[in-house]
Amino acid sequence: MKRVINFTSKRYLMFALSLVVIIAGIAGTIAQGGFNLGIDFKAGLNQRVQIAPVAARVSYTGAAEATLDVSKTAVTVSLLEEGTTDVRVFPFSQYPTLGELSSAVTALPGMAMEVIGSRSLSSGQLVGFSYPVQVSEAEAVVNYVASQTAAPVAIDQIRETLQPLGGPQIQMIGTASNQEFLIRVLDTGEIEDFSEVTSRRILDLLGASFGADQVLIRQSDYVGARFSGELGSQTVSLTIMALFLILIYIWIRFQLAFAVSAVTALVHDVLIMLGFIGAFQMEVVTATIAAVLTIIGYSLNDTIVIFDRIRENQKLMRDSNFTSVINTSISQSLSRTVITSLTTLLAVVSLYIFGSGPIKDFALAMIVGVVVGTYSSIFVASPVLLLWSNVSRKRRQEKDSQRYGIKTTDKAELSAEVKTENPVNPEAPAKPVPAAEIPSVQRKLKGKRKKK
């Protein structure tokens, strides 16, 4: 038989520990001046830029309308003339170097591709276009990603260059050689047409430092004040709605006591995670909220597994008290809980080590959430269920005492009294009376006493 660990004996100590951690998180968040809200929850411009050297310049002097597109695998030239389109594709697999690619493109009538970088540069290092660009006598610029050996632009250089914008938030995306940066500039409401003006200033400042042709705007998003406020309020309301629906679901599947216990554990997990995020000033973005909601589902699943075992053992262990049933159920589920948590941690720790930007913050929040969710399933949800059961039992006993006029009697006394009243076998040993049958036994004893 598997060893049963008395988890519930430590419930008050664990309740105190959880309370201390929650209070410490709240105090830390207040001391830091509140949550570090990201651009998703504040009005501002969110722009992704890339610093990439110029590889070549492409021009066209023919009569057709020419467009140029660069993808991860090929360069495509489209010539539209008199309603017909001539599409020429130059795969990097067939033209592995920039020199070979340039010769093939220049062979088209009217097309010219002047190599600025090394002709031996790999075609796979070319930076893809977000969309095809029109080519004419005005040259189109094709950039490339520097090799791992090249000296990359440091993030501190980007911060220093953009300092006139008031100290925007800057993060590096991917590897240093990729030279991609996420720039966030808050909108204070003082600048009219903030998105357009700020985007132009970012481009001008970076262009002045690194060259206008080497600065690529990969993505630009503007979040207005109204939208950011609505996003924050919707996040809170949706989280509360999710907890309420979980309460209803577990109430239907189990009982109200199980539902309240599970939701208490989920609220516990959310409070600790939010306290950690606020105290350590992790940036609150949509990825952070996704981590909190993910942990709600993870912790709930772990709790449901233990509650299922408790419900099953209530039928198998009729002669045992509810404390023993809970401890046995947790002990039986412990190996499954630990293995699931460890395998999940392997994945999220890998994301934290090898990830960057919002992914790294998401992984860190998940690490904290997995640990807290596992802890709460064992030391919060089940002990709260036990406390609910004890309070309900005491209330039933008080009602029975008032209704039948007798004081609550323990099982041994009731069993002994039933034994002496047994006319079939007066010498039979007393059998334990299940807690659920005590009220019916009390009614029988009261009736017999009245007859006497």
Search tags:
Multidrug efflux transporter AcrB transmembrane fold; alpha+beta; 452 residues; four-stranded antiparallel beta sheet
Please outline the helices and strands.
Blueprint: H1 11-31, E1 36-37, E2 44-51, E3 54-60, E4 65-70, E5 74-81, E6 84-91, H2 98-106, E7 111-115, E8 133-135, E9 140-143, H3 155-161, E10 169-173, E11 180-186, H4 194-210, E12 215-223, H5 225-253, H6 256-279, E13 283-284, H7 286-316, H8 322-354, H9 358-404, H10 411-420, H11 438-451
Parallel strand pairs: 1-13
Antiparallel strand pairs: 2-11, 2-12, 3-7, 3-9, 4-5, 4-8, 5-6, 10-11
Helix pairs in contact: 1-6, 5-6, 6-7, 6-9, 7-8, 7-9, 8-9, 10-11
The CATH architecture of the largest domain: Up-down Bundle
Roughly how much helix do the residues carry, as a percent range? 40-55%
Oligomeric state of the chains in view: single chain
Strand content: 15-25%
Spans of at least 5 consecutive residues whose pLDDT stays below 50 are 408-433
What is the radius of gyration? 34 Å
Write down the CATH topology of the largest domain: Multidrug efflux transporter AcrB transmembrane fold
CATH superfamily of the largest domain: Multidrug efflux transporter AcrB transmembrane domain
> Structural class, from helix and strand content?
alpha+beta
